[in-house]
Amino acid sequence: MTTASVTAERRTSEASFGVVLRKVRNSYVLRRILRALFVIYLVATGVFFMVRLLPGNPVDVYINSQIAMYGKSYETAAAEAAALFSFDPGTPMWRQYVDYLVGIVRGDLGMSILSPGTSVVQKIALHLPWTLFSVGLAMIISVSIGLLLGMVMAYRRGGIIDHGVSTLGSVLHAIPNYLFAIMVVVIGAVQLHLIDFTRMRGHSTPGVTPEFSFRYLSDALYHATLPMVVYIFTTVGTWALVMKSSTTQILGEDYVTVARARGLGDGRIRSMYVGRNAVLPLVAQIATQAGFVVGGAIFVEQTFSYDGIGITLFQSINARDYPVIQGILLVITITVVLANLIADLVYSVLDPRIRTGERED
């Protein structure tokens, strides 16, 4: 191969690389996807090292628990741990990190240390649907009620509904969901005996066969009631206040005044001019909140003994089950990042000025 041909090939490859860079730079969707992948990588790396900063490792935790609970000697507990766990705490950190990243790329999150023979994906698949069921249904109800109340408050500013919902919403917004869950158990179940807390534990009643039937769905809904009530009451006030602020701002816009001057009906103005534009800034918040609520389910599910992904994460942290902790936190991270990505894409469709504005920058 001559020098001229090598130079020409190099120029061709450089030109192709430049074309790819320009396509990425000019594509709003590609930039968002690459940014999402980079964020997932950063968080996955941070989770890997932060999990190992926890005091003790799975073997140490198991040995200490056996000594404290059953009075076994250290040597006996250590021998049981060596026979039970495949985890080797002496493996170099860089080796564990490389195996972890390679596993993520392959879609393999590893095996649970505490449950030999059970993969992390199987554990997540077993518990995550229950959390998505309770959190997802609660989110839909909370956002729907909150947006509706927010619009009513904006249209009736200074009235009884406005003051009442604003006060109640501020109070509920200030209460953390885990504290509200404890209040439900203490007041509703222990003090007033209004809730049969013992029967409502778990994700379903023992003996009820999992199937797509009204009996099973109603039973699942019955067990998810308490977590859903907590999610709804601790978030609906926030959505109402945010929607009220957004709607009040939109009501002062010139195009709403012009629409009224043109004699358009109140229903059309509320839906097409006010409601649509007031919801627009909330799209990203709604999407990201869904991911954070899944992450915040750990305390609520622990309080109600609801067998979702939150209680699984709590148990894994206590036992230092590294692969399960990493897998669950990675799934939560991907949920939040994907929610943000979807919100960005939906937002760009609803308001195309975002795409053109970034291109000009």
UniProtKB/TrEMBL annotation:
tRNA processing is among the record's keywords: no
Subcellular location(s) of the protein: Cell membrane; Membrane
Residue ranges occupied by any ABC transmembrane type-1 domain in the UniProt entry: 128-343
Major site of localization recorded for this protein: membrane
Pfam families linked to this entry: BPD_transp_1
Recorded superkingdom: Bacteria
Transmembrane stretches, start-end: 33-54, 130-155, 175-195, 220-242, 278-300, 324-350
Keyword line: Membrane, Transmembrane, Transmembrane helix, Transport
Cleavable signal peptide: none
Membrane topology qualifier: Multi-pass membrane protein
Family membership noted in the UniProt record: Belongs to the binding-protein-dependent transport system permease family.
Name used for this protein in its record: Peptide/nickel transport system permease protein
